[in-house]
Structures are given as structure tokens and as C-alpha cells.
Design brief:
The complex is a heterodimer of chains A (215) and B (227).
Chain A (H helix, E strand, L loop, with lengths): L5 H36 L4 H15 L3 H14 L6 H27 L2 H9 L4 H31 L11 H12 L2 H32 L2
Chain B lengths: L8 H40 L2 H15 L3 H14 L6 H26 L3 H9 L4 H31 L11 H12 L2 H30 L1 H5 L5
Classes of the chains: A mainly alpha (215), B mainly alpha (227).
């Protein structure tokens, strides 16, 4: 049995970089898909609203783990063998898009209706209304919950370990397999996750207080 | 694409899926009930407790909400057993899910309890209600009614998150799927089926929570309006 040493801890910290990278991929992918979803949810077309709603219902009603298994093992057996990073990236994008889409829909709807009417009176077309009036205000409302959701993303990247992607959680398992001190190792792994997530939680709360200060 | 979908294994393996789904229901109902209890007590402590108690609950909530459930499950299952406390996979799953649920419930219920106005407590006092009566009827039930939508979504999210307990070989729905797909090599079909079962379970949970809400909250039943 190998003794737990500082090298192991260093290995864990280095693996945390992959957790951060995976979180960034998930957030960027989720934002790119989530924004159109949010806009579809508030669109005037019943079809677009329905489609976005079905997508969100399905993704929010299935565990992320199953989405991961489907895109890694499922697509693999269909003949599309994906790299674990790609499979994880796709799964997290699907997952984050559904939640961000729903969060942002609420934020767009929270912009007072009078803003729509006023910009209408100024003769702005719908694209201009979104670009210059609605979205800038929605962004301000959306920042605290979005930062809060980033915590969920970081935590959920730990699931990528089950398809063999070596990020922080998987690195913890690997170290555990050689040193066999699960309590200490997973506590350290948990502490590293905490070090990433806690600042985000605090930032989210701080932003929320600041946003509500004017009211 | 030359792949042919084949769901024939279902004819033989469907009892496995039913058993897995049943265990998922058992695990999650137990941890939702226990977690709600833990969370409610912690929320009361957070609002009405002394500074030390408030601090302890605060640390618990932040520690759990900022670390992944997977790691929490590993600590309970592998960690505790290495310290000499051996729990079965199912018990570990319930413990980890309960601890997790408790932290989220604390935050949600705290918001509800803080929304109860002081005058309500004073009125309860004037009516001569005991402390316990006040907490149950004047604080907790109305607080719960206010945050019931948030609580319900958190309960459904916990049910979905219980899939992670498959990683410590609790034989619930996801673990069953992993087993069947490794026997049949039909991973795509298996996971699609399980995804559909989870969707059905979420719908079932949402419906059950809505019905429970009707029973619990008189206002909703009689007037049809939320608080």
C-alpha cells in the first residue's frame, strides 16, 4: 500500500483544472443553446414555445447521469464512438441549456411590460427591442441566479467520472485505489470542490443583495 | 446507419426494471421524508437558535451545498466504512441523500420561516398557544405553504439525483440499467427506456406532491388560491 503524500494532493489539485475546464465548456455550451431556448419560451409562436417547453421538460425530468450514459455508451454502440470529453461536453451542454433557458426565461419575463410598450412607441423593431431594451435589463436580473447555477454545473461535472473522464472526482477514486484512505481523500476532494464553489455562492448572494438594494 | 433497434430483452428483463424503479422510489421517499425533517429542524435552529447553533447549521448547509453529491456518497460509503462504520449500500444511499436533502430544505424552509411576520407570533402568544403549537400551526405550516413550489422541485431533483447512488452499487433504477446493458449490449435502448421511466417518475412525484399540497393546505383546497 502506498502512503498518502503531498504528491497525491498535488495530483488532485491538477485534476481540478479539468473540472474547471469541463465547467466552462458546460457553461458556454449551455449559454449558447440556453439563450435561444429562453427566447423561444417567450416567443409569440405557439410552436416555438411548445418545442422549447418539451425540451426543457424532458431534460429536467431525466437524471444527468442517464444523459451521460446515453451520449457515451448509447451513441458508442450506435457507431458514434465519442471521446469522454466530447460526450461529457455534449451532455453538460444539453443539461445546462435546459436549466439556463428556464432561468433566463423568468428573467426576460421579469422585465416590466411597460418597457416593451415604451420601446414599441419609439418605433423599435422586435430585434432592436431585445437588443437595446429588454436583454440589457434582463441580464442584470439574471446575473445572480446564473452565477448560482454555475455552482450546480461545477458540482455536476463530478458525474463525468463515471464515463472515465479523469477530473477531480475520478482523480480522487484513482488516488483512493492506490492508497486506500477514502475518508481523507474524499474529504480533500470535497474541500477542493468547496474552494471552487463557495466563492461562486458568495458572489451570487452578494450580487442578489446588490440587485435588490435599489428596490 | 446500419444499427437495428432491438427491445426484445425487455420481454425477459422488465421485472428488473420494475424492481429498480421500486427501490428508487423507496430510497427517495425515505430520504425526502428524513431530509425534510432534518432540514426543518435546522431551519428553525437557523432562525430562532442561538449564535453558536446558527453558525453550526450555517457551516452544514454551506458544506453540503458547495460539494458534489457523488463525493458525499463516497464519503458516507467508502469513508465511513474505512473508519469502521460499515453501512450497506442502500443505507449509505439514504444517509447521503438525507444529509444532502436536509441542507437544501434548510435553506428553503428558512426563507419560508423568515417570511412569517412577527405579528403572527404575537397573535399566537395572545391566544395562549404553547410554543410547540405556535411553531407547528403558526410558523411551520404557513411557511411550508409559501415555499411549497420550491420544496416540490427540490424533492423531484433529489429523486433524479438518486441515480448517482448507482455508483456505490445500490441496486436502484440506474444500477439496474447498467447491469442489463452489460448483459445485453443494448446500451442505447436500455438508457432510453430508463430515461422514460425517470420522466414518468418525475411526473408521478409532481402529481403526488400536488395532491399532498391539497391535503396539507386548506386554503388551496377550499379557495383554490396559493398563499
Amino acid at each position: 500500500m502506498i502512503q498518502l503524500s503531498s504528491t497525491h494532493i498535488l495530483y488532485l489539485v491538477e485534476a481540478a483544472r479539468w473540472t474547471v475546464l469541463l465547467s466552462l465548456i458546460a457553461f458556454v455550451g449551455g449559454a449558447l443553446v440556453g439563450l435561444p431556448l429562453a427566447l423561444m419560451r417567450v416567443s409569440r409562436s405557439k410552436l416555438l414555445r411548445g418545442l422549447a417547453s418539451i425540451y426543457i421538460q424532458i431534460v429536467q425530468g431525466t437524471p444527468l447521469l442517464i444523459v451521460l450514459f446515453l451520449s457515451y455508451f448509447g451513441l458508442g454502440i450506435l457507431g458514434y464512438k465519442l471521446d469522454p470529453l466530447v460526450a461529457a461536453g455534449i451532455s453538460f451542454t444539453i443539461y445546462a441549456a435546459a436549466f439556463l433557458g428556464e432561468i433566463w426565461r423568468g428573467c426576460i419575463e421579469a422585465v416590466p411590460k411597460t418597457q416593451w410598450e415604451a420601446s414599441d412607441c419609439l418605433g423599435l423593431n422586435p430585434v432592436q427591442q431585445y437588443a437595446y431594451v429588454i436583454l440589457p435589463q434582463a441580464v442584470r436580473i439574471a446575473t445572480p441566479p446564473t452565477v448560482g447555477f454555475m455552482v450546480q454545473i461545477v458540482k455536476n461535472t463530478s458525474l463525468a467520472s463515471v464515463i472515465g473522464f479523469v477530473e477531480l472526482a475520478r482523480a480522487g477514486q484513482i488516488v483512493n485505489n492506490s492508497t486506500f484512505e477514502p475518508f481523507v481523500i474524499f474529504a480533500v476532494v470535497g474541500a477542493i470542490y468547496f474552494a471552487i464553489c463557495y466563492p461562486l455562492s458568495v458572489a451570487s448572494r452578494h450580487l442578489e443583495r446588490k440587485a435588490n438594494a435599489g428596490r | 446507419m446500419s444499427y437495428k433497434f432491438d427491445f426484445e430483452f425487455l420481454a425477459e428483463r422488465w421485472p428488473d426494471f420494475v424492481a429498480g424503479a421500486w427501490l428508487t422510489i423507496q430510497l427517495t421517499v425515505a430520504s425526502i421524508a428524513l431530509g425534510f425533517l432534518v432540514g426543518t429542524v435546522c431551519a428553525l435552529a437557523r432562525v430562532y437558535g442561538g449564535p453558536v447553533l446558527r453558525r453550526i447549521v450555517g457551516v452544514y448547509v454551506e458544506a453540503i451545498r458547495n460539494t458534489p453529491l457523488l463525493i458525499q456518497i463516497f464519503i458516507v460509503y467508502f469513508g465511513l466504512s474505512s473508519l469502521g462504520l460499515k453501512l450497506s449500500a442502500e443505507v449509505s444511499a439514504i444517509v447521503a441523500l438525507t444529509v444532502n436533502m436536509g441542507a437544501y430544505t434548510t435553506e428553503i424552509m428558512r426563507a419560508g420561516i423568515q417570511s412569517i411576520q412577527r405579528t403572527q407570533l404575537e397573535a399566537a402568544d395572545c391566544l395562549g398557544l404553547t410554543r410547540l403549537q405556535t411553531i407547528l400551526h403558526v410558523v411551520l405550516l404557513p411557511a411550508m405553504e409559501r415555499v411549497y413550489p420550491a420544496l416540490s422541485s427540490q424533492f423531484v431533483l433529489l429523486m433524479l439525483a438518486s441515480s448517482i447512488t448507482s455508483q456505490i452499487s445500490a441496486e436502484e433504477l440506474t444500477a439496474t440499467a447498467n447491469l442489463v446493458q452489460s448483459d445485453t449490449y443494448r446500451s442505447f435502448e436500455v438508457y432510453v427506456i430508463v430515461a422514460v421511466v425517470y420522466l414518468a417518475l418525475s411526473a408521478l412525484y409532481r402529481f403526488a406532491l400536488w395532491a399532498i399540497g391539497l391535503v396539507l393546505f386548506e386554503r388551496r383546497r377550499k379557495l383554490g388560491t396559493p398563499l
